[in-house]
Amino acid sequence: MNKQTQIIAHRGYCAVAPENTLPAFEAALAYNPDMLEMDLHRTKDGHLVVIHDETVDRTTNGTGLVKDLTLAEIKSLDAGQYKAPKMPGVTIPTFAEFLTFLQDQHFAKTLLIEIKTDHQDYPGIEAEILAMVADFKPSYAIIYQSFNLETLKTIRRLAPAADVAALAVWGGYKVYWLKWRGVFDYVHVDIRILKHKPKIFWRSTWHTRVWTVDKADDMRLVFKAGLRGLITNDVALATKIRTEVQGEPHD
């Protein structure tokens, strides 16, 4: 199989639907991306929910920290009208609802799960995520990522065979040392940093994925460099430019 740069749909296709909602993931799947990326927090009463921010303020009509709200309170919020196009009635999905959605869609690519422990402490969340994944017995691949290196160490300890990625603005020596030690397999870095350090594009590129790449010129830079993956809000544009630069995918 040719080594094409992977296209990763960031929080679904959030340029056309509310991020981290089932409509956004459904919209992304229409473009057959290589991965879906999503984020996990935990409610006050211990439910895993798919949302990016620590609070519900930006993406719903509610306020407060996810960790201080019950699932019933989370589910009462409207997550479909904070941006255009407005989608009334859309709610924050639970992790179980999301995994059921993937099951119903016969998802067969890769799921990229971001564990949001970089600003909030959710003791034991890593084991809970792994347990729920085990319950669903997915046939597709999963990569676990986080900015929190302790979370990555915990995933590696609990699931030694798991694929693990470190999120970093800039990799730095500590991140690459831990990668060398086998704590994680990939490094996911900020496109803004790599644009200022272009030589990084041409060194050890096959373990590197870049976030969040939405401009056409930046996409071309990543595709020409042959990096492992590109995390984007604009799945359609990334698909078009990858074909221009790298050609059609083939086995």
UniProtKB/TrEMBL annotation:
<dbReference type="InterPro" id="IPR030395">
    <property type="entry name" value="GP_PDE_dom"/>
</dbReference>
<dbReference type="InterPro" id="IPR017946">
    <property type="entry name" value="PLC-like_Pdiesterase_TIM-brl"/>
</dbReference>
<protein>
    <submittedName>
        <fullName>Glycerophosphodiester phosphodiesterase</fullName>
    </submittedName>
</protein>
<dbReference type="GO" id="GO:0008081">
    <property type="term" value="F:phosphoric diester hydrolase activity"/>
</dbReference>
<dbReference type="GO" id="GO:0006629">
    <property type="term" value="P:lipid metabolic process"/>
</dbReference>
<feature type="domain" description="GP-PDE">
    <location>
        <begin position="5"/>
        <end position="242"/>
    </location>
</feature>
<dbReference type="Pfam" id="PF03009">
    <property type="entry name" value="GDPD"/>
</dbReference>
